[in-house]
Amino acid sequence: MEPPGSLSLGALLQATTLADILAAKKKGASRVVAFEHSQTVAEALDLLQRYRILAAPLLVYPTLRNTMGEGAHGQGA
């Protein structure tokens, strides 16, 4: 069950306008949020929702890729 006043990810995406994003940017609401490679997708989506982040880049370092046994294109070795 979601806390009162929270939105599901889909509802957040539908309810957020460009004006909301621009207003937050003007207020200096910029944050850096980092994820651990061991976090689940559900945990990552929860964090994105909590901070109202609609998109995020994904950086994969070669050592992490090698540790997880993946090739250059994300395919298993």
Helices and strands, with pairings:
Layout: H1 9-15, H2 18-26, H3 41-50, H4 62-67
Taken as a percent bin, the fraction of beta residues is under 5%
Number of strands: 0
The radius of gyration computed from the alpha-carbon positions, rounded to a whole number of angstroms, is: 16 Å
Rounded mean pLDDT is 74
Give the proportion of residues in helices. Answer: 40-55%
Q: How far apart lie the N and C ends?
A: 39 Å
Strand count, sense and barrel status of the largest sheet are:
none
Residue windows where pLDDT falls under 50 for at least 5 positions: none
Please identify the structural class as seen in this structure. Answer: mainly alpha
Q: How many helices? A: 4
Which shape, going by the Cα principal axes?
Answer: globular
Number of domains: 1
The SSE order reads: HHHH
Structure, described:
- There is one protein chain.
- By secondary structure, the chain is an all-alpha fold.
- It is 42% helix and 0% strand.
- The protein is globular.
- The model has no long low-confidence stretch (mean pLDDT 74).
In brief:
This protein is mainly alpha-helical and 77 residues long. The chain has helices at residues 9-15, 18-26, 41-50, 62-67. The protein has one domain (9-67).
Question: Top keywords for this entry?
Answer:
single chain, 77 residues, mainly alpha
